[in-house]
Amino acid sequence: MRWTLDKVRMIALFTPWVSIPLMFVGVVLVVTWPLVLLTSYGWICVPAALLVAVLMALWLRPRYRVSILDSSPLGVFYWLQRRY
Fold first, then answer.
1. Residue 70 belongs to what H/E stretch?
2. Least CB-packed of 25, 52, 72, 77 within 10 Å?
3. Alpha-carbon separation of residue 43 from 23, 29, 39, 53, 57 (angstroms)
4. How far, in Å, CA of 49 to CA of 51, rounded?
5. What letter does residue 74 receive in the DSSP assignment?
6. Which of 20, 1, 12 is nearest to 78 (CA)?
7. How far, in Å, CA of 34 to CA of 44, rounded?
8. What are residue 82's phi and psi, to 5 degrees?
9. CA 55, CA 69: separation in Å to the nearest integer?
10. What is the model's pTM?
């Protein structure tokens, strides 16, 4: 059980190819929320933002590699390497 929590923590919090698209979706939803409430065309922005976030994640995935060097109850010591 502990191993799976560490893997989820590594993927969700430390991996840029996951965190950057999630931040993008959050910003887009905050900006487009008034547009969604006022017009029916605003609902086009939400699926478009999700599509852009998925494409961004696919583009960033091969560029970053995260390795967990040590894991304890106090935290995770990881190594983030950017590939060129």
1. strand 64-72
2. 72
3. 19, 11, 8, 16, 22
4. 5
5. T
6. 12
7. 13
8. -95, 125
9. 29
10. 0.61
